[in-house]
Specification:
six-stranded parallel beta sheet, 14 strands, 2 domains, L-2-Hydroxyisocaproate Dehydrogenase, Chain A, domain 2, three-stranded antiparallel beta sheet, 10 helices, 311 residues, Rossmann fold
Length: 311
């Protein structure tokens, strides 16, 4: 099995390292526009194989896609981070052009690949890739929900001083401060979280989860990469190994949850065909209102994208 990662920065290189160490793919191809970056990181990771005991072959190439041919899964991490003075609209315009170009090159050489989007704004970039590929929507997926629930689960485990392995959680909506963690669908070892943490404290944890990415940016002065890479590796593994994991992912909705023509995070079954099934859960009035707010925020960004006539 072959995995291509476009973008050999912190997230892309860490993802390649994770995939190799887990033995998920036989071949890993790193692509970047910066000369020597992907080649150097591929070589560096390859030299850990005798130490970490993995057999994956890792190659790097600069701004070329012929070596990505016949990839089973392609992860697109490329794009620019939001810089001081850059508006949201500027970020959408810049990264939409990048994702469009990358996606076109990917499907030229790997028309049957399943594509995972990590570039931001994630929901909008997933929409771009869907429109560019014109393939089944189940094959273009955004990575967000697994990362966001991981943050939620981490903060809950810290609060209760328990193992994060025992925390199960779910959330919906866009990847950002309007995401909707769902306490009603969250438990620790089967015990509802609402019986273990007060509403006031739980609201604080939810707020921290919604601002989880920003908290790391403020500390590192760059975006997170270990957790995003780990979340993406879990998605790649679920697809290649046909694990049929039930996880929250960003996917194109066509009527589900009463929404059309929008990419937003919902629970799905993830397997060899990508999104095998979209799971529609019951939402109470408050949860539905929050989900609608999040979806409307994503839709407003999609409208900005449409105004640029890029796709």
């Amino acid at each position: 099995m072959k995995v291509t990662i476009v973008g050999a920065g912190n997230v892309g290189a860490t993802l390649a390292f994770d995939i190799a160490n887990k033995g998920i793919a036989d071949k890993i191809c790193l692509v970047d526009i910066k000369y020597g970056l992907s080649e150097g990181k591929a070589l560096d990771i390859s030299q850990t194989a005798p130490i970490n005991y993995f057999d994956s072959r890792i190659i790097g190439c600069t701004d070329c896609y012929d070596q990505t041919a016949d990839s089973d899964v392609v992860v697109i991490t490329s794009g620019v981070p939001r810089k001081p003075g850059m508006s949201r609209d500027d970020l959408i315009h810049t990264n939409a052009i990048i994702v469009k170009n990358v996606t076109e090159n990917i499907i030229k050489y790997s028309p049957n690949a399943i594509i995972i989007i990590v570039a931001n704004p994630l929901d909008v970039m997933t929409y771009v890739a869907n429109k560019v590929t014109k393939i089944n929507r189940n094959k273009v997926i955004g990575m967000a929900g697994i990362l966001d629930t991981a943050r939620f689960r981490t903060f809950i485990a810290e609060e209760l001083n328990c193992s994060p392995k025992d925390v199960q959680a779910l959330l919906l909506g866009g990847h950002g401060d309007t995401m909707v963690p769902l306490p009603r669908y969250t438990n620790v070892g089967g015990i509802p979280i609402t019986q273990l943490i007060s509403k006031e404290r739980l609201d604080e944890i939810i707020k921290r989860t919604q601002n989880g990415g920003g908290e790391i940016v403020n500390l590192l002065h760059t975006s997170a990469y270990y957790a995003p890479a780990a979340a993406t590796a879990q998605m790649v593994e679920a697809i290649i190994c046909n694990q049929r994991r039930l996880v929250p992912c960003c996917t194109l909705l066509n009527g589900e949850y009463g929404l059309d023509d929008i990419c937003v995070g919902v629970p799905v079954i993830l397997g060899k065909n990508g999104v095998e099934q979209i799971i529609e859960i019951e939402l109470n009035k408050e949860e539905r209102q929050l989900f609608d707010v999040s979806a409307n925020a994503v839709r407003s960004m999609i409208q900005v994208l449409k105004n640029f006539n890029i796709i």
